[in-house]
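Subject: two folds for Thursday's group meeting

Dear M.,

Sorry for the delay on this. The cluster queue was jammed most of the week, so I only got both jobs back this morning. I'm pasting them in the order they finished. Each block is the input sequence followed by the predicted structure tokens. Could you check whether the formatting survives your parser before we put anything on slides? The first protein is the one we discussed after the seminar.
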Amino acid sequence: MLAIAQSGSTFHYLNWVPSERGPLVTHHGSIHKDLENPEYIQQYYFDIIEEIFSSVKNGDPICTFSLDRNQVLFSTCIAEDTNQELIDWHLKQTMDDQLEARIDYYHYPMESESNTILNIGVPQNIRQSFQTNMRLLKSKMNGLSVGIFSAEAGARQWMQAEKFGNYLIWKFGKKKMDELLFIRDGEMVTYFSFHRTGKNGKINWQFGDGAAADLIIQDILNVQDGKTRKFNSAEQVYIYTSEGNIKDVKSFHQMQIGNLTLLNPLSILETGEDEKIHEYNTLPLAETGNAFGGVDV
């Protein structure tokens, strides 16, 4: 299985095969390629996937892909029991006909008590480019995800995060613009972006339970200021970066917070060679998690 995770113009990849002791990583790395013309997005993704395929050299691999969050659209709506008619009505109120014709929406329930649905819109030209490119490359795409949501799948598969009543996925971003996803009892509670700046920081955007987000932010500020050595708003916190912000990750990790862990698959999975793993440089592989659904690690 080949997992590819996009972060801006950089594409991180991890290839694994089944073994008696669980998934065995045979290749991992990254390539960089800028999109020069959005009209040629199919060729853009074809060139990327073909180059990674040639690096991995395992025949015609089945692959998964994680998109950069900036490639998709997010919104929420209230729909009891995931009522599709209410969801469709909401989408019609929030976008024009041109946008509706170009975006495919996928719907994910948040905490059941809230009746809130998180809508993720994927541009049709991106989805269709994958379908065409898989045919051209005589391969198969086994799953399409987005950034931190793929990392959350990884936390469940690699770290058995579900053994905790709740947990937090914390992605450190450029210029201290972070993303955070909080899960409780297997349900998505809140997803938000927080700018770690100034005394109190600032929420950039937020979906789901605002009170839960506020508690998490207060925890971050307390840890940052050295007022506590443990997160109280989450039983376990998994941190990573895919944007090269290693300095901030190191800073928090080296505080030796009791319930904070690096989200790095190479710290759990076996590799094909006796290589020395750089625990910080390989953190972008956290977003390859959607390639491990249903796999015993």
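Second protein, same layout:
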Amino acid sequence: MTVVLSPATLDTIPVDFRADPDGTWEYDSLARRAGFDMQWGEISVGALTRPFAGFPEGAAVVAFMSGSQCSVALVDCTAPNAALLS
């Protein structure tokens, strides 16, 4: 499993927040792996609609929003050891 905080802005990432990421994952585990605390802001999970920044189509996009700030993590839930997310 690969987790990377992305310097890209959310509007430049090809993500569908109505789609579920590929692989094995749970919402809370994705947030923890991304380093986001749900008590401090809103978290949204979606899937890449095409490969982006070395991550495959279907990889998780975890967006954390607090006030006017937004942080984004990319998570490949299909990579080896992805079962650790559950």
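Two things I noticed about the second structure. The longest strand covers residues 69-76. The helical segments are 27-34.

Cheers,
T.
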